[in-house]
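ok so for the tutorial part 2 we go from a plain amino acid sequence to predicted structure tokens. step 1 is just haveing the sequence, like this:
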Amino acid sequence: MKHIFKGFFAVILVLALSLGTVPVFAGEGGQIIVLFTNDVHCAIDGYSSLAAYREQLIDEGNSVILVDLGDAIQGEIIGTITDGEAPVTLMNAVGYDYAIPGNHEFDYGMDTFLGLAVNTAEYEYLSANFTDLRLGTTVLPPYAIEDFGGYKVAFLGVCTPEAYTKSTPVYFQDENGNYIYSFCENSLYDTVQTAVDSAIYDGADFVVALCHLGIEGTTEGWKSTDLIANTTGIDVVLDGHSHQTIHGEYYENKDGDTVLLSSTGEKLGNIGKLNISMSGSADTQLIPLETVNGEGDAFGSVQALIDGYNAELAYLFNPIGTSDANLAIYDEEGTRIIRNYETNMGDFVTDAYRAVTGADIAFANGGGIRAEIPAGDVTRKLLMDVNPWSNEMCVIEATGQQILDALEHGASGYPEEFGGFLQVSGLSYEIHSYYDSPVYVDEMGAFVGIDENMRRRVQNVKVGGEDIDPEAIYTVAGSFYMLKNGGDGFTMFADSPIVAYEGLLCDSDMLIEYFLTELDGYISYEQYGFMYGDIRIALFTEQCYTLGDVNEDGAVNSLDAAYVLRYDAELISLDYKQLWAADVNGDGIVNSLDAAWILRFDAELITEF
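step 2 — the prediction. this is what the tokens look like for a chain of 609 residues:
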């Protein structure tokens, strides 16, 4: 098989080329087949079956290309303790031809990723929109062309611009905090279109976009469907990032032509199979991994590597306690909920952070909680897979106002998934999603501020059961990634003083410490049995009150103002609906300022709140 590497920029060729064992051209009855995986997240036990399936297809006379769509080398402890090297080594053994970096390929740092690409990977990393701003060039080849006996198929990489905040922002910056790498977020469609046009100019008959963009929970404008709608010349999009299972759906491109899109889900639950005919038609299938016959030379050699890695980690599989509860990040139907709902797993994780550090409050971004703990034996491996990055932890001092802004940012995407959705301990809050989010972010998704002309979604925030004081100082525990490096766009804490850092356990070790010392190796159903937690986060999708009508008599007048003043003077209490009705200026606090607004409304000096 002939490999052609030509780019539309002056490309930095940083990778070694691997020809693999694929035949030059499909024999009689053979096909052009592209096997694809996405969001494997270190689920290495499935690689031996994938290798067996690839070998089977080649033995049948097919031309086979194997590609990965990102987020392969991070997600479980085997990736963490080897800085991604073990998964890459296994991908070499399986026989991958191409891969693209997902946002989590960068989680070990830029130098580590590029080192893996240069020194370890025997397959080619591609990306048309990952650029070095200092040089004005792509970091990786934008595409590669495979020649199947005269029929040429281009494979073109597209990375998510969400990598800035869904990995660690400082990894893309210099020592002065200036961004030195870009994902062409402001020119994504044009950048990809230029690469597509270049590939076609270089002779490509068929273009396959290898994307890590996603659909559900992805920033508007950066979805794979957005890319399709705003470009031409792409025949198939193979996608990752949002962990969706898409068997094969058609979307119209900029010219109204249909483009096939498919995605396998996650963790090698399925092997994606793209069949390409030389007439230009294509279809995709998802092959459940469990249906693959695990035998043959390829299976044996890859399984031996997997067994070796697992043997090194065997001590992590020894039980250290038990759980009566299923700590969940998915609901009963298999839908991920950790990024848009409170869960008992989120409660457990943040309780651990708070207990071990002694902070007033603990935060965990939902996107950083990656695995469940089923009822039964609990091992170190299970706990480490919950927080697989072994993130450094810290405790900061933050004002109540900064905390309110952080909660608002975390709730900005609800009801859609958002990796920055905040699981909490020591704090409770409400999300009123019938209000549009007042949060505005920069082009990289980082928090900039709040539109104070809009009502906040987050209301009735309490710390330790008491109303949060915007002027007060609280101690907040969380990952360095989120609290100080701006992960998931949490920039509001950038200048907050760090009061604990040196000597703190990493996040996964905090879970182990909490489990063994605070819980005595036992997770009780009474404490953590309810999937949706103990209602630290209350969700309201419909307004169940009238602003200003504090006494609920159907009118807004001076009587309501009197209720507010009496509440402010601590003469009466108000229930939750009355408190929402009383906060007419939307600042999250009920006091005399709200009474003044109600009196102005009663005097017809204003017409609305």
